[in-house]
Structure formats: structure tokens, C-alpha cells
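Write out the bound-state structure for magnesium ion.
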Amino acid sequence: MKTAKIKNTNKELPVQKIVCVGRNYVEHIQELGNEIPSKPVIFIKPTSAIIYAGEKIIYPTFSQDMHHEVELVLLIGKTIKNADRQTSEDAILAYGVGLDMTLRDIQADLKRKGHPWTISKCFDTSAVISDFILKSDYQLTLNEEIYLKVNGEYRQKDPFTKMMFKPVKLVEYISSLMTLEEGDLIFTGTPKGVGKVNKGDKLEAGIDNLVSLNCSVE
Ligand code: MG
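---
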């Protein structure tokens, strides 16, 4: 069973599901030529896709164009459904950084056909997660910056103030669509700068000095 590990403790929570948000930063929507949505775009990844800091992202044989997408990840700490703003805020237990690895060639083909994005998003090793910092230890202000480096060079770096739908709003919205449970993860979308990774690349991601991860592509 895949778990979310709490930073500076021995605690870990079994991950129940991974809910992902697409198109949540305007400049990223523009770089892929997509329309700005009036509501968050939502999809799901299986927990089998999870790997941890220090592990390897495996390039699937059926894609030539795997992209990095660095994202703030929320760890949910209680069961909620149709939650109001306060309940949604209280349900966020901890924050981490994650990579929503995406097969851009496969996704483009699926989009053209009007098919779900599943095959481009759900492969093994497509969800890399850091340890999670408890909200009780650090309250996110949204002035923090999220970053991703490939082979030591910054490729993505933006503050959370650029998110169209902020974390509490996302939790509130998702809870109107499905029950959220303790151990669920929410990937909150990626800022601009997504791009292809190659075998042998070393990736480093983080949020200020709060949480970080590194991994390589094989
Ligand atoms: Mg994403």
C-alpha cells in the first residue's frame, strides 16, 4: 500500500486516491494552447502510480514525450462531502510537492479524439511525492514559490499566488463532486515551464525550504 509520509515524524497515512487538477495557472494554459476553464479541470491517478523522493521515473515504452509538471500536493486529513469553506480548510492536513508526470504525445492524441486523459496520466511512476509538512507546523500563505530543476537548471518557478483556484476552493469544489477521505491527495495543477524529460535526467523539486524531492528518469 502506498502511503503519504509526514515530515519529521514516523507517521504515514495510506493514500486512498489521487485527485488532480488541470489548467490552474493561466500562463501554463497558454503555453499548451488550452482554454481558460470556468471550473477546475479534474482527473484521477491510481495510487499504483506513486513513487517517492530518491526513486526512478520509468519512461513508458509507448511514449516519446514525457513531461514534468511540478505541483503543490494537499494531503486530506478527514472525510468530507459537500464541505463549506471552513470545513474544507480544516480538512487539509499537510502540504507536499509532487510531480504529475504526463505523456504529452499520448495526451494530445486523446484530446483530439475527445477521450479521457487516463493513459497519459496513470502509468507507473507518474506520481512522485515528497514528505508532507503538517499545516499545524506551517501555514501556507500562498506567497511561497514552487520550483522544478532539470539537471540543476530551473525549468518551473512560480508563486502560488498565480493559482486561479486556490487550495481551499479546490477542496470545496472536489468535495461537491465526490467524498474526500483521510489519506487522499490533491495535485493542484502546474505553473508554466512544463517540458520534456529524457532518460538520465535528474529532477529536483520543492516549495521554498519547506519540502523537496529529487529523482531521476530511466
Ligand atoms: Mg498536472
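---
The chain is about 15% helix and 35% strand.
The helical segments are 26-31, 85-91, 104-113, 118-121, 167-175.
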